[in-house]
Request: fold
Amino acid sequence: MTINWDRTLLVGDVGGTNARFAIAHMVNGKPVLEHHESFPAETYPTFLEGVKAFIDGCEVKPTGGVIAVAGPVTDGEIDLTNSPWRVSETELGTLGLKPVRLINDFEALAWGAPVVPQAELASLGGPEEGDPHAAIAVLGPGTGFGVSALVRDARGNELAMPSEGGHACFAPGDPIEDEILRILRRRYDRVSIERLICGPGLLNMHRALAEIDGRETHIDDPAQITAEALENPNSHCGATLARFCALLGAVAGDIALTTGARGGVYIAGGIAPRILPFLKASPFRERFERKGRFKDYMAAIPTHVILHKHAALLGAARVAFAASE
Reply:
């Protein structure tokens, strides 16, 4: 076993709700993580304080690293989409991290997906493996909705594409979804995918479906919708979650078409693993494949849920070690 001890690198995964950090090493050419730590974003007033607290707790201090963040990175700076934190690579450099790089969290997941062990993937239909030389797409709901893709070629070259695809327009697929769009347009100037397929989006959908049915709902917590749906799939909450899964499948199919992801589509984020049995039994795969003339094209694309809790950290580690070579 060959361990690259001469480089101790920091990797992070910072979302709208939680921040996760680890120390990364390379073992036989694959990233290995240790000294994991996770805390709510609200624990520290500033992002820099959170990173410093993690580094102070490390026996061997990292010399550089890569931190994945939930939002677009512009000129080495990030203003997180669903969090009050702001951070820059220059500020992180004051902690002795040189070099250090910020990347989009789903860009990190695109790098991480191919190295997630098969045992930590759950199939949502399609073949077990896709075209090894074709792109893969990674997407999923959590606090928001993230999208990325990893472009691959026959020579083994790879390139991850950072994306804000979750903010593309929502496209309804049936009359009920037409009504959902109409209702949400009263609240938002523009209805994006993220307005429906994420934690807060689940609540938007539940309220819209209640209005369509002409009934009241007093639920104001997405977690309550999920809990009631899992307990009773035939309830109103069950109908909401089934529609959520159907839309996730439809959007995943659109993204597969857009990116040419014949290598596979990976569902990431915090929601899918928690509802996995429900998701498997839902219309997800039917809506994924329902692409008219491209139904056969879609049927050949595998779909998986990433169960690995630190897939983005694995991807950040791949980027970090490639940058330090």
Q: What stands out?
A: The mean pLDDT is 92. The longest strand covers residues 30-40.
